[in-house]
Amino acid sequence: MTLSCPLCRHRAAQFYYRDKFRSYYQCNNCELVFVPAEYHLTPVEEHAYYNLHENSMEDEGYRRFLSRCAKPLLKELSVTSVGLDFGCGPAPLLARILEEQGHKVELFDCYYFPERRVQEKSYDFIVATEVVEHLSAPGDELSALWARLRVGGVLALMTKLVISRERFASWHYIRDPTHISFFCVETFQWLSRKLGAELHFADSDVIFLKKSGIDPE
């Protein structure tokens, strides 16, 4: 089977792992691990699965989780920055946390806040927490977000990273059927070069890509 990587479009993916539900392949170029399209849920199935999540705007545990992204991001932002919470879900608590500190945050989620006009604006920052692992075409989506980011702005991502093939086999993250794209450190290094971004790991699974204005390689 010859598969194109959904991130870099390189046509040299190799078999990585198989469980009893689906197969996984890894790109030889950017090292993204991904699930072939034949195993993807339909939009209706995906939406139904998301509706099972129990995140709440009042959940202190959820606030602590999102603060792992919010706290280092706040240090990067100037006063009254304008941002986008991409893939915010039905409970956009991260947007509230940032707004509590004086920033303006617009919302987009294809199921819960499907206002397409927000994706035509420019922003000082864009956050996407626990989003990129759900994307069937992460290369297209991330490029589109990057185009909406102003010079000096930050694209803040939160996703758990592939460590090794051995740990992947027992990783809880792959048990979620909506998780189809799995990044590792090397994948983000590749992405930062492609975008001409300054890469910073703010935490083990919190990744900042800063738009420097330098042309990419």
Keyword list:
alpha/beta, 217 residues, 4-stranded antiparallel sheet, Rossmann fold, 6-stranded mixed sheet, globular
Give a quick rundown of the structure.
This protein has 217 residues and is an alpha/beta fold. It has six helices and ten strands.
Strand numbers in spatial order across the main sheet: 5-4-6-7-10-9
The CATH topology annotation reads as Rossmann fold
Range of helix content: 25-40%
Tell me about the biggest sheet? 6 strands, mixed
Can you tell me the overall shape?
globular
Count of distinct strands? 10
Keywords: Methyltransferase, Transferase
Protein name: Class I SAM-dependent methyltransferase
GO biological process, one term: methylation
InterPro entries: SAM-dependent_MTases_sf
Furnish the topology, listing elements before pairings.
Blueprint: E1 13-18, E2 23-27, E3 33-34, H1 43-50, H2 60-76, E4 82-86, H3 93-99, E5 104-108, E6 123-129, H4 138-147, E7 149-158, H5 165-169, E8 181-182, H6 185-195, E9 197-203, E10 206-211
Parallel strand pairs: 4-5, 4-6, 6-7
Antiparallel strand pairs: 1-2, 2-3, 3-8, 7-10, 9-10
Helix pairs in contact: 2-3
Explain how this protein is built.
This protein has six helices and ten strands. The strands form two sheets. It has a six-stranded mixed β-sheet, with helices on both faces. A four-stranded antiparallel β-sheet has the order 1-2-3-8. The longest helix has 17 residues, at 60-76. By secondary structure, the chain is an alpha/beta fold.
